[in-house]
Amino acid sequence: MTDHTGVRQATNADVTELVRLRALLFDSLGGAFFNPASPEADWRSALAVVLKERLTADSVRILVVDGDHGLAACGIGTVEQRLPGPHLCNGRVGQVIGVVTDPAHRRRGHSRAIMGALLDWFREREAARVDLYASAQGEPLYRALGFDDHPDPALCRRP
Fold it and tell me: In a 3-state reduction of DSSP, which class is residue 142?
C-alpha cells in the first residue's frame, strides 16, 4: 500500500469529530446491540476520554482525513499481543475498529486510503493477522484489500 493521500494521525483537536463519526457508525449499524434502548452511561464522554488517552499509544493508530468543515473520515487500528500458537506464530493480532466516512464525503477513496495506511502500520508492527468486522457497505472494499471470512464463528456475551 502506498497512496495515503490526505491521511494523517489524529490529534487532541480531533477528538470531538472522532466521537461524532463513531456515533454515525453506530447509527448506521442500527439494532439493539449497537444502540441499546437504555444505555448504561454516556458512552460519548467515555469515548472522548479513551481517545485522548490512546492518541499517542504505541498499540493504537487513529487516522483521519480532513473535510471542508471537520473530519471527512476516520479509522482506528490496534495491535494486541496474544499468546502465540500454530495459527498465530508471534501472537500479534491487529484489529481494525470502525472505519467511517461522513456521508457528505463518501465515494472519494477516504476509507481505502485510511485502510492502506493502517495495513502498512500493521505490517510495521508485524501483526500476524488483522481482524475486522465489516458492514455490508464496507465489505466489498475489505475483500478487495485481501480480507476473507474468518474460520472461527464469533460469539459474545455481555456480563
Answer: helix
